[in-house]
Amino acid sequence: MNILFVHTNFPGQFGALAQVLAGDGSHRVAAIGSQTARPVPGVRLQRYHFDDVGHAGVHTFARRFDREARRAEQVLYALIALEADGFRPDVIIAHSGWGETLPLKAKCPQARLIVYCEFYYRETGQDVHFDPEFPRLGVDGLTSLRAKNANQLLALIDCDMGLSPTAWQRSTYPPEFQHKIAVIHEGVDAERVRPDHQARFALSNGRVLTRDSQVISFVSRNLEPMRGYHIFMRALPEILQACPGAEVVVVGGDDVSYGDRSPDGRSWKDVFRSEVARSIDPSRVHFVGKLAYQAYLELLQISAAHVYLTYPFVLSWSLVEAMSAGCLVIASDTAPLREVVRHGENGLLVPFFDRRQLSRAVIDALQRPEVYRQLREAARRTAVSAFDRRAVTERLLALVLGQRTPERQGA
């Protein structure tokens, strides 16, 4: 069978599945991705070049679709190049978020199309207007938001089935399409991401932190309000005052992954660090930027309290990896976290905007660690039973190879 992956940042969510299919020996596996795509052994990678040249002359409402259409054109050329070399896909697995699905059925009508359905934009009930601290969208902004879904709707019409990582993320899609979408998270490497009581985390100043160091960890791709960075920073003065031995390690970049940039042009990291600068000891709050994976894993393994906050938005891999590492997860009581974290059983949930309750939860976790030992163990069990990559990949294989349908999948 000829199997094609399409993802601008390949392998993205498809890494484990691509590796298994490529290693099977009975399939030919190829991938199409942009210049940011990374190779996977056994997978032929056809890269395309995409420059976001701007939107001169393009209506505001159509800007995203224009960008996606230009990306789709490059995917079409990549498909033609693969076909010229004798590769004609039987199955295509593609992410629906960048426009890359647009030409797939037109060029490859014979192929079974599976699309990854990560998030459908809506005006209410999700990330938009969730946080009253930030400006609301006007009618123009809301119209542009609705237009963002155009390519996803075409993908849902074209696809034979979809995949969403959580039931809540599937629920963001129009009801008339949800029956086509199976709920299967791509999983985490639970064998590698596991508790290690001997783990050590080295800071850039030479200090080494261990499980005895009362470490509070916070991880986000970029430090921004969408992932609750502002709430976390505002909770730190009370936490650090109550726990004089605590150390805070903040992982994340200075850019923006999802939301808007700050009005004054500064990074959100600097905006909220400045806000609390006079109330915290900077020698105890360590901004480490983006970590190499092994260092990130060691941080999770020594963490005494791992804080994960988010607007109602996509679930981060880091949350599941923290549970797999046996962290005490203190998370916001928002979707889709309620689907994974059960308060008082395998973690703690606190209201997103209640920084006092967040502070109290972290303080208690540091002062009475033995009380929460069972929650750590339960978090690990949850990760292994529901998110272990090996088991999850077997389920994905069954879907890709046509052995199961969305209707027979549990949500």
From TrEMBL:
Keywords: Transferase. Residues 26-192, 212-381 form the Glycosyl transferase family domain. It holds the Pfam family Glycos_transf_1. One of its GO terms (molecular function) is glycosyltransferase activity. GO terms for biological process: lipopolysaccharide biosynthetic process. InterPro entries: Glyco_trans_1, Glyco_trans_4. This is Glycosyl transferase. It comes from Methylobacterium haplocladii.
